[in-house]
């Protein structure tokens, strides 16, 4: 009921038809407290899957707004509570422990400060977020990963396109693309938006990237054009934005989500800890997270490596720009700040001497920037504690900063850390990502072409690619299926008739069964090897197109042939395969798709690679969640791959095969390595063993009894040798 009321409320808040949409993703209800972003996101995806574009936009926007509001509330409460004298940690607690500190001296100070800080944060959170505070909004790692990858914007761009809001569709597409630059499907979408007459160039704006990056890039561009006076405000904005983003990142380190995964992993060990061990472990994780913020703010969206020495490099640009416009006081302030990071930096010392000579008289009150002093003092204090924990508690810490003074590091750790310092990837030129044209040229080479993308298929996460198989390869796989069926070998389904219709025969062959038959000499080894090779070819291409940043694993591979039964096709009303989704149970009445057993919930992407087209019927089709309204249809042909995400956004079925025999390779992929297809590995090993045995037999003297063993006996021996009985798998 609450979810329905939320949906109705957001529908009322949508702008009326014809009204102008505010730029970007403005809050739907200014000043309203945030709602649970994970529930909003889930509701938004359900509305999207149902084709309710306006509610989907409202819910997804509100999820983004609420997530941002939660971050701001946590940051603001953390800053205000840290400023309260009674809640501040005593200065002596921020240093590494002294060996001669008296027992029990610090305990009352620590506990009093911790209790007061907790009270302050609880009260502030309740004022900002309502009763219960931040505890009501704790979300899981899956949700956080989705927002980190900007997945809501992928759905938003499609929904905006359906609502004919092309400017916002282009903006949300661009926002997703910035963080996922190797996503080929979005690249195709971006190219189409640029060709649309109703989309303006300024529509391609990033709605998520922290503003310090835009100021930083523009400031450097102005410096290159020798326009230092114009560059200075931008460079200063970039530095202040970087420090602000740093504070936001650090505040997130104190949230419950940051500790969630580590605590789950260490549940057993933590149960054996005492009070102080648990406090120390939690505090060390907070400090480690805070130190990682340096690299986080220096890493552009969509990049794997941070900009080298990000903060010191900004200070170098600032002091050079101030010197160019004649503001030597500011130039000295910034170069002195550089020397806080690198006291022996020759270029900075030379610039400082030059500025002092030009000023002519000493300036006793002139020193480094206060914001940089605070940053360095705080960072060094945290590093001391982390290195102490490394030395005495056996914890780990990878220092993100090349400027850390060696004297701060305990002598026992210096050699090891020096070796790690030399291996740090961002101390060298980071590998440049391949251009998008490279991915298309390499992965879609050898005649593979993108025939239809998601928009042409009227959906999302769908694609049709042609040319994955040559006619000769299709013939080899068709012959493999024919030989296996002729030998009576069946795998994947029980019974001769299809499990989905009484009007068709079904033949299924797994990769392991094909390898066993090849080992027994019942089918040709060429077909079994090609079956393995082609399945990997499909997996590689599916990952490159849909999931370039996250590896996919094959979870099941099935060579499937459906044959129409003669005399049973007249007035036939059923389907060859009813409408379904591959990783959830589809409920056409409500449009819901429940990701729970008996569905194969671990499947993330599906693929159908067709081998022939000499039959009637048998086209694949996609529908809306009601399982009735067909949104797209694909005709099989040799070498054609239809790939799509496995969830409720892609309900699909197969029209009845009314004449002939339709063969295809069905593949399912998963992000979960624990669900990778073990039979694929077993099949590969079995075929390799066969090759080795054949090579050995060629070197041996021919046997006195050249007659081959009967196929059925030989097959049984192969199965016994593997140590596993023949498996029968039934697929939805």
TrEMBL record:
Check the UniProt entry and state the signal peptide residues, or none.
1-20
**Region described as Disordered:** 246-269, 680-732
Q: Keyword Iron on this protein?
A: yes
Q: What is this protein called?
A: procollagen-proline 3-dioxygenase
Cofactor dependence: Fe cation; L-ascorbate
Renumbered to this chain, the Acidic residues biased-composition regions fall at: 255-267, 688-700
The yes or no answer to whether the keyword Metal-binding is present is yes
Pfam hit, one: TPR_leprecan
Chain ranges of the Fe2OG dioxygenase domain: 557-671
In the Enzyme Commission scheme, what number(s) does this protein have?
A: 1.14.11.7
Give the Basic and acidic residues compositional bias ranges.
717-732
């Amino acid at each position: 009921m609450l979810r329905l009321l939320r949906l109705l409320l957001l529908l009322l808040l949508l702008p009326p038809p014809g009204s102008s949409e505010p730029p970007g993703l403005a809050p739907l209800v200014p000043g309203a407290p945030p709602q649970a972003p994970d529930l909003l996101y889930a509701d938004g995806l359900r509305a999207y899957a149902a084709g309710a574009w306006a509610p989907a936009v409202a819910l997804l926007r509100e999820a983004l707004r609420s997530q941002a509001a939660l971050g701001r509330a946590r940051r603001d409460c953390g800053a205000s509570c840290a400023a309260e004298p009674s809640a501040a940690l005593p200065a002596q607690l921020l240093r590494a422990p002294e060996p001669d500190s008296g027992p029990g001296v610090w305990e009352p100070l620590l506990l009093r400060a911790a209790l007061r800080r907790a009270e302050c944060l609880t009260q502030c959170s309740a004022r900002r977020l309502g009763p219960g505070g931040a505890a009501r909004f704790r979300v899981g790692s899956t949700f956080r990963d989705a927002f980190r990858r900007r997945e809501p914007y992928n759905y938003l761009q499609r929904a905006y396109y359906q609502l004919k809001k092309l400017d916002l569709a282009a903006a949300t597409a661009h926002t997703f693309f910035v963080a996922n630059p190797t996503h080929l499907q979005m690249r195709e979408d971006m190219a189409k938006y640029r060709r649309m007459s109703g989309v303006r160039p300024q529509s391609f704006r990033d709605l998520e990237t922290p503003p310090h990056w835009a100021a930083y890039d523009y400031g450097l561009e102005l410096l290159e054009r020798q326009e230092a006076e114009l560059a200075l405000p931008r460079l200063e904005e970039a530095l202040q934005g970087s420090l602000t983003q740093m504070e936001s990142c650090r505040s997130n380190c104190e949230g419950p989500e940051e500790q969630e995964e580590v605590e789950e992993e260490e549940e057993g060990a933590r149960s054996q800890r005492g009070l102080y061990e648990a406090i120390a472990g939690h505090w060390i994780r907070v400090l480690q997270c805070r130190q990682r913020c340096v690299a986080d703010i220096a890493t552009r969206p969509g990049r794997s490596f941070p900009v080298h020495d990000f903060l010191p490099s900004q200070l170098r640009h600032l002091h050079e720009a101030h010197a160019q416009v004649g503001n030597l006081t500011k130039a000295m302030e910034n170069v002195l700040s550089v020397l806080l990071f690198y006291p022996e930096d020759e270029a900075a010392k030379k610039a400082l001497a030059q500025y002092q000579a030009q000023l002519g008289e000493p300036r006793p009150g002139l020193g480094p920037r206060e914001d940089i002093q605070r940053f360095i003092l705080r960072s060094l204090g945290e590093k001391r504690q982390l290195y102490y924990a490394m030395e005495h508690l056996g914890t780990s810490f990878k220092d993100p900063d090349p400027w850390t003074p060696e004297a701060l590091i305990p002598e026992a750790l210096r050699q090891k850390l020096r070796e790690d310092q030399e291996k740090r990837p961002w101390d060298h030129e980071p590998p440049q990502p391949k251009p998008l044209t490279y991915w298309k040229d390499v992965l879609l080479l050898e005649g593979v072409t993108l025939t239809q993308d998601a928009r042409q298929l009227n959906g999302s996460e769908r694609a049709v690619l042609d040319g994955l198989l040559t006619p000769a390869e299709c013939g080899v796989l068709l012959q493999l299926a024919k030989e296996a069926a002729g030998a009576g070998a069946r795998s994947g389904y029980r019974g001769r008739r299809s499990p989905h219709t009484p009007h068709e025969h079904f033949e299924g062959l797994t990769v392991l069964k094909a390898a066993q038959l090849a080992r027994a000499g019942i089918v040709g080894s060429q077909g079994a090897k090609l079956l393995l090779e082609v399945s990997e070819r499909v997996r590689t291409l599916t990952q490159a197109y849909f999931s370039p940043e996250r590896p996919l694993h094959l979870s099941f591979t099935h060579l499937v042939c459906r044959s129409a039964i003669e005399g049973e096709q007249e007035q036939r009303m059923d389907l060859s395969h009813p409408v379904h989704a591959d990783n959830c149970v589809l409920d056409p009445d409500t449009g819901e798709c429940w990701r729970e057993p008996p569905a194969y919930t671990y499947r993330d992407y599906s693929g159908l690679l067709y081998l022939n087209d000499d039959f009637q019927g048998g086209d694949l089709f996609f529908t809306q969640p009601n399982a009735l309204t067909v949104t797209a249809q694909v005709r099989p042909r040799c070498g054609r791959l239809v790939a799509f995400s496995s969830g409720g956004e892609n309900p699909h079925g197969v029209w009845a095969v009314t004449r002939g025999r339709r063969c295809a390779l069905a593949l399912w992929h998963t992000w979960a390595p624990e669900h990778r297809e073990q039979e694929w590995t077993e099949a590969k090993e079995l075929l390799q063993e066969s090759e080795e045995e054949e090579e050995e037999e060629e070197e041996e003297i021919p046997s006195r009894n050249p007659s081959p063993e009967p196929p059925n006996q030989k097959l049984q021996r192969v199965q016994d040798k593997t140590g596993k009985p023949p498996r029968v798998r039934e697929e939805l």
